[in-house]
Design a protein that fits this description.
single chain; 304 residues; alpha/beta; FAD/NAD(P)-binding domain; 2 domains; eight-stranded mixed beta sheet; five-stranded parallel beta sheet; 6 helices; 18 strands
Length: 304
């Protein structure tokens, strides 16, 4: 069993930022990531709201962050963590066939956007399909877009996009919205917003970039083709936290309950999109990573 000071599960922005701060604090750590380093942002065509970076592709951003982490001597462990349990003096973490013992644990596993399941959705992600209007909305200024969802996020996205886009379709599978009534009232007053209710998106497509969405009415089966340049999916997220349910408190959505101090339980810290929070952006993920790592470093020092 290899012993480290901190085990960090997840190598997105939060996890890799935590690794930078933990390593600069002189601690030994294990950084685990099963999939591509960077998390969901890898699939984003362009990032332009991260301070000082200007415009940068999601993949390039992720690789630059990984390079910074590795330059500090941190080796990314490309294995899935299958078990994490509390032991005397710390935590046992199993990754593949290997087991690690850590004095502190940082959960940075993020959350996955719920997909529509529409034909072409995966192929056009980053080329017209987006899961973050805050991140990508500005790319569609003056264009026609659709927002899919019926909750508060979908309504907020539609309001934001209505300020910059020529046309916004708000597509919801039911006849009534779950979003706040005040936001729906504001949307009804927008001349460039059209509600498409009792409907689902079956297909999106185009050539080099997205140019249409096929919408089906679930009541009568009728099909409509919408000419849109972008489709913003806002049907929720699923945090990847089930592995830690026995170690920390999860809310009804599966997010790890923790405040801005990122403390989830004794010796356990959480950073990024899997934490209970209102704003989930790259910059807040990085902030969480720094806070969690410094708190974990202080915890480890107190155990020494």
């Amino acid at each position: 069993m290899k012993e480290v000071d901190i085990a960090i599960v997840g190598a997105g922005t939060a996890g890799m930022t935590a690794a930078i701060y933990a390593k600069r604090s002189g601690l030994e750590l294990a950084l685990f990531e099963e999939y591509m380093p960077g998390g969901q942002i890898v699939n984003t065509g362009e990032i332009e709201n991260y301070p000082a970076l200007g415009k940068i592709g999601g993949f390039d951003y992720s690789m630059a962050l990984l390079k910074q982490v590795e330059a500090l001597g941190v080796k990314l462990i490309r294995k899935s963590v299958s078990k994490a349990e509390r032991k005397e003096g710390g935590f046992a973490v199993t990754a593949g066939k290997d087991e690690y013992f850590a004095k502190a644990l940082i959960i940075a596993t993020g959350a996955k956007n719920r997909a529509l399941g529409a034909t072409g959705e995966k192929e056009f992600t980053g080329r017209g399909v987006s899961y973050c209007a805050t991140c990508d909305g500005a790319f569609y200024r003056g264009k026609k877009v659709a927002v899919v969802g019926g909750g508060n996020t979908a309504a907020a996205d539609a309001l934001e996009l209505s300020r910059m886009c020529e046309k916004v379709y708000l597509i919801h599978r039911r006849g009534e919205f779950r979003a706040q009534a005040a936001d729906i009232a504001k949307l009804r007053e927008k001349p460039n917003v059209e509600f498409v209710l009792n409907s689902v998106v079956d297909e999106v497509g185009g050539e080099d970039s997205l140019s249409y969405a096929v919408v089906r009415n679930v009541e009568d089966g009728s099909v409509t083709w919408l000419d849109v340049d972008g489709v913003f999916v806002a049907v929720g997220q699923t945090p990847t936290t089930s592995l830690f349910g026995g170690l920390v408190k999860l809310d009804e959505g599966g997010y790890v309950v923790a405040g801005e101090d990122c403390v989830a339980a004794d010796g356990i810290f959480v950073a990024g999109d899997c934490r209970t929070k209102k704003v989930r952006q790259l910059v807040t993920a990085a902030a969480d990573g720094a806070v969690a790592a410094l708190a974990a470093a202080e915890y480890v020092a107190g155990k020494g």
